[in-house]
Amino acid sequence: MLLNGDKGTYNTTLLIASVKIDHKLDYLTKGLSIRGTANYDDSFGKFITIGSTIPNYKVRRNPANLNELQFFGGTIPPVNFNGTSYSKTYNKLYFDAGINYERKIGGSAITALVLGKANRYTLPEGQYNTPSGIMGLVGRLTYNYKERYQAELNLGYNGTENFAEGRRFGFFPAYSVGWVPSSEAFFPKNKYITFLKFRGSYGELGNDQFNSVRRYLFLPNTYNLNQGTYYLGTSNGIDLLPRYNITTEGVLGNPLVTWERSKKTDIGMEARFFSDKLSMVLDFFKEDRDNILGNLGIIPATFGVPSGNIPPVNIGVTQNKGYELSLGWRDQIGEVNYGINGAISYTKNKVVFRSEAPFANEWQNATGAAIGQYFGLTSDGFFNTPEELANRPYNTYASNRNTLGDIRYKDLNGDNVIDDQDVSRIGYSNLPQYAFNSRVNFGYKGFDLSVLFNGTARGSFYVPQNMVGTFFKANGNVYQWQVDGEWTPERVANGEKITYPRMELNTTTANSNFVKSDFWLKSSDFVKLKNIEIGYSLRDLKFMKALNISSLRVYANGNNLFTFQNDLEVFGLDPETSDYTNSGRNNNQGYFFPLTRVYNFGLNVQF
Q: In the chain, helix, strand, coil percent, each to 5?
């Protein structure tokens, strides 16, 4: 039966065409030009499957001799040809036309651009079978005075078919200024500070792509006809009045849906020291997002329309702020050149507002918490003695079925009951607050070596029940780490470290031990040897000149070579894995790719 699989062939046809025209208008005024672009992409893919013709058998053990296998069947299935199992067709059309101006007058360099653009994306199997498109007008003006004073203004006016008329277009400006004190006459020329620049920017961006919800939210409400009948009593106490068909509200529309908007502010500096050997870039940033599309969490059940039919609205607000710092050192000693670069970023975000019914305790609300914040119970060791078990709070999650070796939870509100009122913010979100990396480069007579480290800190990952439960679906395995950390009375008596509750068969999220809690929330912090690459380059050899080869490089590299700190290693998880299923109060099963190590060998030839 394991060999009973189909064979498939996937054929793709791709057409890419592009035309670009530039025309200088120096005869009107110097630096003036016009431009135009037209792009067309077309793709057609088809997947054809051919069914297997391998005989199918059923097998069982001989009841009289368990060492003997008995085979039954052997039928050969007919060849199954499916020429329409999968096909995908799309085409993209893009046009733009604009006018440029670029000129230098004395010490001033001025550029300007006005550009109109439009694109259309057609996906026949898409929702409503209608193309999607966006069009807009872009303007840009820059000014640079002797690389000393810099300013830039960008204006965008974009429209989309995803919103109703009157709300389709949005205006998105951006501004930036820069000052380079090291180019000033008063700045002393020296080898200690060779370059210094301060800059600031503000910009707004819009988002109209709401892939997680239905398309065309602005369409009118729908209604469901013939949903039964009703009558209004009787006319004389006996004869029923006429019956009427019932019509119910279906999916509701939101004619006010519009652009999500992001407002970004950045203040930074760039500097180079010691004859440009040491470089530094420092940025402080803040991003405020509003009009975020989200579901209304305050609609009562008496509203009369299922929650799934209520459209999302532009109501969410979030904030991100933090800093980024990068340092680099480049130098050469004899014939050895080397470079050391490092960067660190810190980002703290929060949900400023989310439409939700307020909880009794502020710390249970998503509003005010980090984006993607986990919520769950707080664990407090295990039930190790009969006395602890007898004096426990009532556990509503498992109908109070607890025994020795189960995880004990804290009664946060002190009502002697473990329930949803004891759910709180646990750990960090899956978006780490710190990210850092470091790269070291060496070069010597054609040899080159590059080493990259990266890592994160203050992040969490919720390990789903199907990855930590024993005998999953009554057929799963028991892992060594579970056996090594399993709760037993003997280990409790010996004072051994216990990292896993008592063993159970066919565990689910309904089991008390696998309720969403911080017990299964692990740190996603890590430090990883991300990449090593070594290469050797050849130049100016006779055979290369004969073949018109300008350079030839042989290289080898490896990715994900070693992880120095990884609390998820025991579960076989890559700490860079994103958790899309269990943020907030979700407690879903998940399936993830393991940590993989990749080696590459290659040859790069340039002519």
A: 10, 50, 40
